[in-house]
Design brief:
Layout: H1 3-13, H2 26-33, H3 35-44, H4 46-49, E1 59-60, H5 75-85, H6 97-108, H7 125-138, E2 149-153, H8 154-166, E3 175-181, H9 186-193, E4 197-202, H10 213-223, E5 228-235, H11 247-260, E6 263-267, H12 284-290, H13 293-296, E7 301-306, E8 319-325, H14 329-341, H15 347-357, H16 367-392, E9 398-399, E10 408-409, E11 412-413, H17 417-425, H18 430-442, E12 444-445, E13 447-448, E14 461-464, H19 469-489
The protein binds pyridoxal-5'-phosphate.
Pyridoxal-5'-phosphate binds near residues 156, 235, 267 and 308.
Protein name: alanine transaminase
Keywords: Aminotransferase, Pyridoxal phosphate, Signal, Transferase
Cofactor: pyridoxal 5'-phosphate
Length: about 500
């Protein structure tokens, strides 16, 4: 198959313009959300198909998969996982005592002392206790109840499960789910799978992608004409936009949710990924409690965390948890019932989550190495965040907000009208056209902004900052050269 034919297959798969047309059937829409992944799969086959391209490797800057980009696993986490997986190693002198202690405790909590057995649907008890203790420490003493903790198959599973129990009604009373635009496409995919109504609120690009409560008010008022807005999803730190919300903004959002009686979903998978010195992660749970009992006893909140991001990047273990508060006891019963249909999340993922919330502490044998490895990953990400922002902002026709957190840049790109016409001729969204050209000419795979949603007439792409520093410098230089050539070609 020729390269052009491969591209044609992709254009077909992306439905022509990658716009997520609402008239399409659900299955097709779900496929649209995966379009960049399919593109990558096709492009990855170029070497085996013998197609000559002006690059020697495809650089996968399209997906937040840290270890796939060369990030080394945290030693302590892998030691405990190795011991849990193959307990004969507990006799080996090669493993530190604190790792053995964690592994023994986890194994004792598993049926038959084995990771290979099912756990309770809500997750292994002692891991839920560790998660609750972690949340209490993180939130400066705000209590967390293990009974409100549910271990999940990555954060994705928790997010889709909560949406499943919240969506109901028909016609104008169908549940509306408010999501940020740009969004992480899991949300639009689950909303369309559940036939819920997507209610967009736009983040403020001119103001470092901040969330403005007036915009939430606009979105909810307009949505009330055609659906019943019940859920407000927040991603903090943001993906793809990288902003970290201020405490004041979180308070405003909670007040708004309280006023409108909305269920809050706080996606906090990037809680360890904050780089700007003037930004700090504030959990919704903590701020909610600090706002007093009127809020803390009434606002329903589910917050999500994961083993996939942070400094650990253990995406493949599929570990995660959610903390759900103020849920009506009957709904809680329904939630547990729903979770029990899938028996339990992978027990290995639960164990990985335990190590994230219960890492070595000062005085323990593994602390020093753990601390060094963690700081090295986060320090490198901070360096790469700044490098990326600075370089993009030197390129005419690219503007990039500061990457305050998470692991992506989402620069705005100027696409000349001649390129927009060329894209239309290829039945592609202009930023899809741009990203395909970038891929064909440089081997760099990024995701068009239209995959996340963006204000009409604006164009973006999302690129991860996960390649190692030297490789990232090369990538940025190549994007710069490509962009300048692109502007010249379509001037
Ligand atoms: C904002 C956000 N939420 C949820 C997820 C899903 O994470 P997990 O791998 O834990 O399912 C991701 C993954 O990239 C994400 O960026």
């Amino acid at each position: 198959m020729s390269f052009a034919a491969l591209l044609l297959v992709d254009i077909w798969l992306t439905g022509g313009d990658g716009s997520g047309d609402n008239s399409l059937p659900v299955k097709t829409k779900l496929r649209l959300d995966c379009s960049w992944f399919i593109t990558l799969q096709l492009i990855s086959r170029i070497p085996e198909l013998g197609i000559k391209k002006p690059f020697t490797e495809v650089i996968r800057a399209n997906i937040g998969d840290a270890q796939a980009m060369g990030q080394q696993p945290i030693t302590f986490l892998r030691q405990v996982m190795a011991l849990c997986t193959y307990p004969n190693l507990l006799d080996s002198p090669s493993f530190p005592e604190d790792a053995k202690k964690r592994a023994r405790r986890l194994l004792q909590a598993c049926g038959g002392n084995s990771l290979g057995s099912y756990s309770a649907s809500q997750g292994v008890n002692c891991i839920r206790e560790d998660v609750a203790a972690y949340i209490t420490r993180r939130d400066g003493g705000v209590p967390a109840d293990p009974d409100n903790i549910y271990l999940t198959t990555g954060a994705s599973d928790g997010i889709s499960t909560i949406l499943k129990i919240l969506v109901s009604g028909g016609g104008k009373s169908r549940t509306g789910v408010m999501i940020p635009i740009p969004q992480y496409p899991l949300y639009s995919a689950v909303i369309s799978e559940l036939d819920a109504i997507q209610v967009n609120y736009y983040l403020d690009e001119e103001n470092c992608w901040a969330l403005n409560v007036n915009e939430l008010r606009r979105a909810v008022q307009e949505a009330k004409d055609h659906c019943d807005p019940k859920v407000l999803c927040i991603i903090n730190p943001g993906n793809p936009t990288g902003q970290v919300q201020s405490r004041k903004c979180i308070e405003d959002v909670i007040h708004f949710a309280w006023e409108e009686k909305l269920f809050l979903m706080a996606d906090e998978v990037y809680q360890d990924n904050v780089y700007s010195p003037d930004c700090k992660f504030h959990s919704f749970k903590k701020v909610l409690y600090e706002m007093g009992p009127e809020y803390s006893s009434n606002v329903e909140l589910a917050s999500f965390h994961s083993t996939s991001k942070g400094y650990m990047g253990e995406c493949g273990y599929r570990g995660g948890y959610m903390e759900v508060i103020n849920l009506h006891p009957e709904i809680k019963g329904q939630l547990v019932k729903l979770l029990s249909v899938r028996l339990c999340p992978p027990v290995s993922g639960q164990a990985a989550m335990d190590i994230v919330v219960n890492p070595p502490v000062p005085g323990e044998e593994s602390f020093e190495l753990f601390h060094r490895e963690k700081e090295s990953v986060l320090g490198n990400l901070a360096k790469k965040a700044k490098l990326t922002e600075d370089l993009f902002n030197q390129v005419p026709g690219i503007h990039c907000n500061p990457l305050q957190g998470a692991m992506y840049a989402f620069p705005r790109i100027f696409i000349p009208s001649k390129a927009v016409e060329a894209a239309q001729a290829h039945k592609m969204a202009p930023d899809m056209f741009y990203c395909m050209k970038l891929l064909e000419e440089t081997g760099i795979c990024v995701v068009p902004g239209s995959g996340f949603g963006q204000r009409e007439g604006t164009y973006h792409f999302r690129m991860t900052i996960l390649p190692p520093v030297e490789k990232l410098k090369t990538v940025l230089q190549k994007v710069k050269d490509f962009h300048i050539k692109f502007l010249e070609k379509y001037a």
